[in-house]
Amino acid sequence: MARDVLDSVLRDRNGRECGRVDSIIVKIRDGEPAVATEIECGIFVLLRRVNRRMAEWLEAAATRVLPIPLGSVKLSLDTFSHEGHFIELPVDCEADPRLMRAEKWLRTHVIERIPGGTAAKVK
Amino acid sequence: MKNVTKVLLGVLTSVGGYLEVGSLGTALQAGSSYRYELLWPIALGTVCIACCVEMSGRLAAVSKETVYSAAREHFGFTFQFWPVAAQILVDLFVLAAEIGGASLALELMTGISMQLWAVPVTFLIWVVLWRGTFGIIENSVAVLGLVTLSFIVAATRLHPDWSEVARGLIPHRSSDDPTKYAYFAVSILGATISPYMISFYSSGVIEEKWKTSDLAANRISAGLGMTFGSMIGMSVVVVAALTLAPRGIAAHTYQQAAVALSQPLGRWGFWLFCASMFVGCVGAAFELALDASYVVAQTFGWKWGEDQTPDAEARFAMIYTGGLLLAPLPTLAGVDPLRFTMVSMSLTVLALPLVVGPLLVLMNDRRILKTHVNGWFSNLAVGAVILIAVALALVAIPLQVLGD
What we know:
The complex is a heterodimer. Chain A starts with a helix and ends in a 14-residue tail after the last helix. Helices cover 27% and strands 28% of the residues of chain A. By secondary structure, chain A is of the alpha+beta class. In chain A, strand 6 (81-83) and strand 7 form a beta hairpin. Chain A has helices at 2-5, 43-48, 52-65, 101-109; strands at residues 9-11, 17-20, 23-29, 32-41, 73-76, 81-83, 86-88. Chain B is mainly alpha-helical. Chain B has 20 helices and no strands. In chain B, helix 8 (150-157) packs across helix 12 (215-243) and helix 11 (195-207) packs across helix 15. The A-B interface holds A 6-10, 16-20, 22, 43, 46-47, 49-50, 85, 102-104, 106-107, 110-112, 114, 116-123 and B 65, 69, 72-73, 76-78, 81, 130-133, 135-136, 300-304, 307-311, 313-315, 317-318.
C-alpha cells in the first residue's frame, strides 16, 4: 500500500495537479499489522526523508525568515481514490484552504503584482 | 505532413540551439590549441546525447511522464533528491555562464562593458519566459539560431584538409601537453552531453503533446538534429584551427577568439561571430531557466507548462524568476565568462552519471513503457554513456585543477 501511494501525484476533482504524497503516517497496533492512516504533504516532510536534522534546521530557519506558509498538511487515507499514478482527491484544491498554501500566497503576494502575471500569453 | 513539420521543427531547434557558450568556448579552445585533434569528443558526445534525448522523448511520448516525474515515482525522493539537486545546480551555473556569454557578445559589438549588459540581457530572457509560450521560445531558438550556420560556411570557405579532419574524428591521445588535452576533451564532452537537454527534451515532448504515433518523428529529430548541430560544433573547431592556431591565438578569452570568422567571412565575420554567440547563449538561457522550473515542478508534482499564465502555477514561474535573479551575479561581479564556462562544464560532467543512470532503469520498465522499452542496442548505448559519464566525473575535478 505505502509503496503504491508514496510519491504519487495528487490530483483534485478538477484534474489539477497539486503536489505529491510526501510521507505516510502509519499506526502501530499491538499484535496486529501496522496500518497506514494518513498521507502527508509538505517540503520539510519530504526533506526529512533525506536527512532529518537538515530538514528540522531548514524548517526552523524558514519559519523564522520566510513569510510563505510552508507547513505540512495531513489528509485522511479514506478520502481519496487511486487512479493510475495519480491519487484523486475529492476536493477543489484552489478552494480548500489546507492545500497549496505556498502557491496561493505567492500568487497573491508576488505574481499578481507583476505586470502580465495574470494575462494570457503571447502566442 | 504534420509529422514532417514536427521533424523539421525538431531538427531546426536542435541545430539552432546547439551552439551555446559551453560548446562555443570549448570548441574554440580545442581548435586553437590542438587543431583537429579534439573533433572526436564532439562526435562521441553527440552519439551519447542523441541516444539519451531519443530515450527521454520516447519515455514522455509513451507514458506521458517526463524523466524526473517517472524517476521520483520509481526511485522515491530519498534517491531522487541527489539528481534533482545536481541538475538544478548545473542549470544555475550554466545559466550564469550563458548570461555572461550573451553580455560579452554585446560588449564586443558595442564596446559597453558586459557588466552593464548583464541586467538587460537577464530581463530580456525573463520577459520572454514570462509572456511567451513554449512555441514562441522553440520557434525563436530555431529561426534565430540559424545564424550559427555561419561557422559551417566559414569552415567550408577555409578549405580544410578533409583527410586530416577525418583523422581528428578517431579517438587518440596527444603528445602535446596530455593533461590539458584530456581537460579539453572532458570539457567538450561536458558541453555536448548536457543533462539539461535530456530533461528539457522530455518536457518539450509533453508540452508539444507528442504521442506514441510520433515515436518515428522523435527518433529522426533527435538523431538528425543532434548530428546537424554537432556539425556546427565541429565547424567551430575547424575555423579555430585554421584562423586562430596559425596566428598563435590560444583563445584564452572570447575577445581573442572573436576574430575567428573575420578571415573567411571578411568584415561580416566579426558581427556574425558576436551574433552567433549572443543568439546561442540567449537561446540556451531560455532552455536552462525553463528546465530548472520543469525539474522542480515535476519532482514536486505541481501543474507545469510554459503555455499557462504565470498565476496558473505561481511556483513554476517563481523558480525561473529566482534562477534569473541569481544567474547574472557572476557577470556583475566581473568573473571572466570563459573561465566560468569551463568550471560549469566540469560541474556538468559531475552531474551526468546521476541524471543518466536512472534513465537506463526507467527505459527498461515495462509498466512505464509497455512494448517500447529499450532494445539491446539502446541499452548498450546508454550503458556506454553511463560508463563514460562515471569516468568523466572521476577525472573532471583533477583535470580542472591540473589543466587550468
